[in-house]
Design brief:
Helix 2 packs antiparallel against helix 6, helix 2 packs parallel to helix 7 and helix 7 packs across helix 8. The protein is 31% helix and 23% strand. The chain is built from 12 helices and 23 strands. The chain folds into 3 domains: 243 residues, DD-peptidase/beta-lactamase superfamily (Beta-lactamase, 3-Layer(aba) Sandwich); 108 residues, 3-Layer(bba) Sandwich (D-tyrosyl-trna(Tyr) Deacylase, Chain: A), CATH 3.50.80; 79 residues, no CATH class. By secondary structure, the chain is an alpha/beta fold.
Length: 492
């Protein structure tokens, strides 16, 4: 065993030194980059540089959240939203003589179409009129809607949306903007989905075709609601498009969207929208209707392929709600995941401050990331779901525009991690070769916001790990005409 390790060191050390020199030539400080590339076929290390050092993982942290959720919640876990009648329900008239309660279960998937379906199903139960209030119960999670790492930037960008047990459309609004019919006319602005009472403040005007579009869209909290602010110009020949921004309320926004859908479906709400936990006396009679989410794998796909912070934090908080304090807190979820990490005999310890990797609160070493990925690869019953959720190089997700001209296109499956404020550009995942599988983590911190440079560095390191196949000379073996023709085509 010792002899085998001694023989393996020189090749690995040489490749690691090549990576170090490449980093220096590319303007990196080697101490700001951590790399570990392991061949799982023979359990050998191909490249190691600062592999045990902790780095800011950014969205690579989502690998931890997903792995813990699969174990703790189950691969087929589904979020439940329950509807209760708080008074006598006359199915003939469709009237509830009291309040209608909606109890959230942390479903991250309440997009516009599923919200519409949810209300359709309520109408199918016969509901036509609510004499009392629409009462929204988001008690599955704690009151805090913004976790650690999310207070560093108060922008209205969609990736910073708040989270709550009742959340509509990722707690974002899609703002559709389209030029007017003539130069100088107002730009058309419409939110989607429809949100009752949302305020639109727009000074944006249609400009001439030869002027570039400079339209700006943001949201702000104004008088307890979300205001959409649109300004600048949009050229008359510009294509209409959607701009996604966060909303500044959670359960309130959910209620406003439901009200708009109630209006469309003819459900008359005589009371108001308010927030409260469902009383035990109402729960005792059982739910009028239960709405079940898609399975957990759907949201792991959101977390991996599209790096959804919202989905990651909703899953993270659900871990505490189901397996921890029962309150859906960030601290509780972190405690559960740290215990889980230790129980799996994974190396070292991790902060697990949030589920998405947002901000400067988490730390992960390349060795820890590779150990986690190795564990997932060897989990036979869940590995296909985990690996297929990752972005495919040059094909989809956050890797769609990367590795396009590389021989690694289509065979790298990985999770990206980006935080420009901290000079972070990370990549961790698998290289799926015909004869072997590599597991890797390349973590770059404190190296500026030039993500394209980081992308090139990831690609160069992985290409060093996978040497180009040697071309075979024609006639090097006995073969018939068909064999020679096939070999020539392959070599091209």
């Amino acid at each position: 065993m010792i002899l085998a390790l001694m023989l393996a060191v020189p090749a690995g050390a040489s490749l690691s030194e090549s990576v170090k020199q490449m980093l220096i030539q590319s303007g990196y400080k080697p101490s700001n980059v951590g790399v570990l590339v392991r061949d799982m076929t023979n359990d050998s290390v191909l490249i190691a540089l600062n592999a045990e050092e902790p780095f800011i993982p950014a969205s690579v942290q989502k690998l931890v959240t997903a792995s813990a959720a699969i174990d703790l919640l189950g691969i087929d876990y589904r979020f439940q939203t329950k509807v209760f009648a708080g008074g006598a329900f006359d199915r003939d008239s469709g009237t509830i003589q009291g309040d209608l309660y909606v109890r959230g279960g942390g479903d991250p998937g309440f997009l516009a179409e599923r919200l519409w379906l949810f209300v359709q199903h309520i109408t199918h139960q016969g509901v036509r009129a609510i004499k009392g209030d629409l009462v929204l119960d988001d008690c599955f999670f704690s009151d805090n809607v913004s976790g650690p790492g999310f207070s560093e930037d108060k922008s209205s960008r969609a990736y910073e949306a708040p989270t709550a047990a009742l959340s509509a459309s990722f707690n974002t609004v899609a703002v559709h903007v389209a030029p007017g019919s003539s130069v100088g006319s107002p730009v058309h602005v419409r939110p989607f989905p429809s949100i009752r009472g949302v305020k639109i403040v727009s000074t944006a005007l249609t400009t001439a075709a030869d002027k570039p579009s400079g339209i700006q869209v943001k949201t702000e909290e104004m008088d307890g609601r979300t205001a959409i602010l649109v300004y600048g110009g949009m050229s008359i020949d510009a294509k209409p498009r959607y701009v996604y921004r966060k909303v500044w309320q959670t359960w309130e926004n959910f209620g406003w969207v439901l009200q708009a859908l109630f209006d469309e479906c003819g459900i008359v709400l005589e009371g108001r929208v308010r927030r409260a936990c469902v009383p035990d006396s109402v729960k005792a009679s059982g739910p009028l209707y239960e709405f079940t989410s898609k399975p957990l794998t759907e949201f792991i796909g959101h977390m991996f392929k599209y790096s959804s912070n919202f989905a990651a934090e909703m899953v993270f908080r659900t871990i505490d709600a189901e397996k921890g304090t029962g309150k859906g807190t960030w601290k509780g979820a972190g405690d559960v995941i740290r215990k889980w990490w230790k129980a799996q005999d994974l190396p070292g310890a991790i902060p697990a401050a949030n589920g998405s990797g947002m901000g400067n609160r988490n730390r992960l070493s390349p060795a820890q990331a590779v150990a986690l990925l190795t564990r997932e690869w060897r989990a036979k019953t869940t590995a296909p779901d985990f690996v297929s959720a990752l972005s495919v190089a040059g094909v989809d997700g956050t890797l769609e525009r990367r590795f396009g001209s590389s021989r690694l296109k289509g065979i790298v499956r990985a999770k990206t991690g980006t935080l420009n404020n901290y000079g972070v550009g990370n990549l961790a995942g698998f290289v799926l070769l015909p004869d072997r599988t590599l597991v890797f983590a390349v973590l770059i911190n404190n190296s500026g916001p030039d993500q394209y440079r980081h992308w090139e560095t990831h690609q160069r390191i992985l290409e060093l790990s996978v040497p180009s196949p040697k071309k075979k000379r024609a006639g090097s073996r006995a073969a018939g005409p068909r064999d020679r023709g096939t070999a020539t085509k392959r070599d091209q």
